[in-house]
Write a structure and sequence with these properties.
2 copies of one chain form a homodimer. In chain A, strands 3-2-1-4-5-6-11 form a 7-stranded parallel β-sheet, with helices on both faces. Chain A has a two-stranded parallel ribbon with strand order 7-10. In chain A, strands 8-13 form a two-stranded parallel sheet. Chain A is built from 10 helices and 13 strands. By secondary structure, chain A is α/β, with parallel strands linked by helices. Chain A has a domain of 221 residues: NAD(P)-binding Rossmann-like Domain (Rossmann fold, 3-Layer(aba) Sandwich).
Amino acid sequence: MKILITGINGFVAQHLLAFLATLPEAFTILGIGRSEPAFDNSQFAPLKIEYAKIDLLNREHVGEILQNFKPQYLLHLASISSVGHSWKNPNDSFVNNTNIFLNLVDQIRLLDIPCRILSIGSSEEYGNVNPSQLPLTEESPLNPISPYAVARVSQEMISKIYADGYGMDIIMTRSFNHIGPGQKNVFVISSFAKQLVQIANDPSASKMVTTGDLSIIRDFVDVRDVVKAYYLLLQHGKKGEVYNICSGTGVSLQQIMDKMCAFLNINITLQQDSNLIRPNDNKAIIGRADKIKKDLGWYPEISLDKSLTDIINWWKQQGS
Amino acid sequence: MKILITGINGFVAQHLLAFLATLPEAFTILGIGRSEPAFDNSQFAPLKIEYAKIDLLNREHVGEILQNFKPQYLLHLASISSVGHSWKNPNDSFVNNTNIFLNLVDQIRLLDIPCRILSIGSSEEYGNVNPSQLPLTEESPLNPISPYAVARVSQEMISKIYADGYGMDIIMTRSFNHIGPGQKNVFVISSFAKQLVQIANDPSASKMVTTGDLSIIRDFVDVRDVVKAYYLLLQHGKKGEVYNICSGTGVSLQQIMDKMCAFLNINITLQQDSNLIRPNDNKAIIGRADKIKKDLGWYPEISLDKSLTDIINWWKQQGS
């Protein structure tokens, strides 16, 4: 199974490689990143992973890579997936989500490479959601309200055009907020965990934690469940279809904070920072995963408590 | 009134300049094109038109132009607006619609220039329309089914983010198929007219006209009415709102062909070319212009018969 994986240095790709390494199948993997490999291949033995450093905005380089490797599968994980970043750098967010994907699929079209493509989207695509519409199914309307969400909706529309108009083999996801050990602390849960672990480690430290709006409700799913879904979709997903990948349960950031404080057995003081409150943020996003359950038998296996414990333990290891 | 007009060499811009030249207001116009000016300024006297040749994909150049000119109004007409072209060059179509617009609005944001922006969209955004949904209002769902349409929906989503999220003064249109003298013959009505005029001019010529699917129904609006709508929207449109610009009447390509043959008093033979039939083309697109009529008092003044006669006469002049 020849797989091209973009965003190979990222959080999701690293968990994907760890998962693939547990499978009996033989994989030939070409990983693409914007920087030098940030990991040691040996940790993913017996996987064979080749590596290419290219800018996915460079059409010519993308074409060469595809022509030489001729992937059977493309798992496109490269993305600048932070909503906060997208408000600060909307143009870069758009280009590094939508345009990099467009370059990839268009080169595959031009080179006529038979390749099954997984296009990763986001629950942010649903955007401004009326509470009466929850939980969100794949049929729910898309009302993106951040530059990142617009980029993801654009990518999904492009995927549909390439699937329906050019007959390409593309499957799409709307992946809800994934969490897990190793995630950068620009993402909220990882940021909370890092701060709380620091407080737990140093009894003399300030107990003040700065946050945005803690009433926000999201549907969190463990990255290790997400990568299993991606692998199943690559193998058995239906061409041209969109799949929610979610837990089906909404949890507020306050609940997550409370759980992590309880795990660490600490008390904290919360301070709201208005700079961390985004324009037009969605109050609640909760999905339904019935479609992927029905079509592929996928469901999340890792509980929220296990995710949070593992994230906390990961930050503890980073500090030591 | 300082107006920056992109796509200055294009069909719509040329009609816009002709219209502005008839008004009593004083205009300072900077026109941006990708190539050297394709027209003689004197024909638009008393308008003062400066010209800059730049690639709108070049962020730095776009920033410099905006910083130097500091437009009060931006009328963004630059576009590769052919659906057929977009199927052949989807990546170029996307970049030269969505990304050029994104570069412009993002530079205006970064430079904090107080500027009212008109973002031009297309009826193609409605895409796959159920006949029961006709005529289309601004509330109708968007189901784009061509690369061009996807690019325009992406542009509109970006406009909404910059208006709602960053508070910028942007108004959007969904402009239906515009026709009029001077349109390139990559567009269907102009292509028909050119072929029919050739037949009328040369009695010995073949009477065969090659077409795509003539049962397709579109809502045609004269470009001279469209540019009046753009000017009104720049002055009085409501920030963050989308406006249909259309006639409200659906006409089949067959009807247009019959009318033009009658005006020219010729009989022809039709031959369908499957290469001219696009994947997933919309069968019927008809709009409702109630919103722009209500908000701005705009309605189309030029009849379809006058448009077609003027287009025919324009092609007659080109041949002579």
